Amino acid sequence: MYIPEYNRIEGRAVALAFMQANPFAILISATDNGPFATHLPILVREVDGRVQLRGHMAKANPHWKSIGQDQESLAIFHGPHAYISPSLYETRESVPTWNYAAVHVYGRGTFFTDEAPLRQLLQEVIGCFDSSYAAQWPSLSEQYQSRMLQHIVGFEINATRVEAKFKLSQNRTRAERENVIKSLSRSADSAVGAVAALMKEQGLGST
Q1: pLDDT tens, 42-90?
Q2: I need a labelling partner for 24 at 20 to 30 A (CA). Which of 56, 106, 121, 170 fits?
Q3: pTM for this entry
């Protein structure tokens, strides 16, 4: 994606933390009929210095057949976003824009349907997103569990490239960034307020 240098995030730890905090991603792969996208939660971890993505999708979804070693897939992790009014700038001749954060992960992957690795993956997913369900899942009948596992396909993608872009008014003056943060912080929309919080986390405000 297009990333001006002042919006580029180089730190691997920052990108990993962002993806783990915003795990509901868009996975895109190439097919004979063009790009195919699926919205789904993805587990993110670092293995031997490389970002690795893991997840599962319905077997009825043909997308998994396009996840392979011979071509790259793209996972887009997107966070909070907000409209930025030019009224918040000191210079009158300014245009409106949008602040946001996103991480793109490109990589080649594999898929698996064997029950043992699928069970392990589900345990990780449940532990990450619903620890209270972790006690319920093992109590379900073996027949039910096996039937559910037969309807999903797991995947694992090893990243070949990670691009992180935080467009958070870095090119504006400190006073203008303060105006943006104050304005967004007053919003009743939690996503808008989260942009202000992210700007503060990135040291773009006074506090």
Answers
A1: 999 999 889 999 999 999 999 999 997 678 999 999 999 999 999 999 9
A2: 170
A3: 0.93
**Residue 94 phi/psi, 5° resolution?**
-135, 160
Angstrom distance (rounded) from CA 30 to CA 51: 21
Residue found under tokens 């996840």: 67
Other C-beta atoms within 10 Å of 47: how many? 11
Rounded CA-CA distance 149/165 in Å is 36
Residue 114 CA to residue 133 CA, distance in Å, equals 23
- The architecture (CATH level 2) of 5-200 comes to Roll (2.30)
Contact 126, 133 (CB under 8 A): yes
Q: How far apart are the C-alpha atoms of 147 and 78, rounded to whole Å?
A: 33
DSSP characters over 151-167 = TEEEEEEEEEEEEEEEE
DSSP 8-class letter at 138: G
Q: Are 59 and 94 in contact (CB under 8 A)?
A: no
d(CA 169, CA 97) in angstroms, rounded, equals 9
